[in-house]
Amino acid sequence: MKTEIIKFEGNENDKKYLDKIKKTFENGGLVVFPTETVYGLGGNGLDAKACKKIYEAKGRPSDNPLILHIAENSQLDELVEEVPEVAKKCMEKFWPGPLTMIFKRSKLIPDAVTGGLDTVAVREPSHELANKILKATHLPIAAPSANISGRPSPTKTQHVIHDLDGRVDIIVDGGKSVVGIESTVLDVTVDPPMVLRPGKVTLEDLQKISPDITIDQSTIDSTNKKVPKSPGQKYKHYAPKAEAICFGGNIDKMVLEIQKNIDKNIDKKVAVLASTETIDRYKNADLKIDLGSRQHLEEVARNLFDSLRRCDEENVDLIFAEGYEPIGLGLSIMNRLLKACSGRIVMRI
Ligand code: AMP
Ligand code: MG
Hints:
The chain is α/β, with parallel strands linked by helices. Helices cover 31% and strands 19% of the residues. Strand 9 (184-187) and strand 10 form a beta hairpin. Helix 9 (297-313) runs parallel beside helix 10 (329-340). The chain starts with a strand and ends with a strand.
């Protein structure tokens, strides 16, 4: 299939583009569009065939359900059985934005969206262009991250083109994703509600709405052997080609430990993912990537997936990544890093 790349220009052509995207969705086609979290690989969420195409294009396991994206709160009612009070409060505070909620599904939802579960995930993105596209189609659009399954999620158009050129009808070029990691997933079908995947909306943010909200421990604890409650969390994710190891604990000791490992692997091509505060302390690494300041974890989140892909482009053999304190956004970053490292973590406290 020939993939068309569309860039909105802020002129009269935009209406033409929106019409084309709408028709593509209506005809069961696939459109990649930018969102504030990562790029989404979209198809009509009410069309089982379109959803199957999404799984094929990504190589995604069929039991890993999709998130439906909507433009307005009013679209939610027909997709779900009920909207619990806590969900209403979360919608008020965090929609549109990087929070996905799991509801009891309505009969309208095809099995292909939910992987056969009796629940469905829904989100309302805040990205202006995503919102325009969703408003124009007025369909719930199933849109997992627009990467080949297992690879780091795409935060730039080049990432999408690398993974999906020839596998989708349209790719909408929308620049760099602002958040850079996927949405927080909150299950509101259980009492108390539970975070199944940490994201930009933190556990602490959610607990301000309802203090009893919990988090599935298996998403943040590499030693936890329990099966995660969200199907997607059990799969290998975000993995660069190189072997990656994350280092945690006291910062000075962590830097020394990473340097020791760089020195031990002088015959290999080594990359270090560091913070602005520590990057100059590393010597002899082949590639040093500054993810951003520890004082501004939003920067670190925004740059994380791009840095993993850069390591692939540079064909490094080993990646040593600094860890972050697992609170607030740091916890979401560690969730992604641990998966990228297949759970390999070295703690020096
Ligand atoms: P992605 O769209 O690639 O960011 O992945 C969607 C994430 O949401 C995966 O981790 C899924 O397992 C999770 N998810 C989607 N629907 C459900 C559901 N009904 N119950 C639990 N988790 C879900
Ligand atoms: Mg994904």
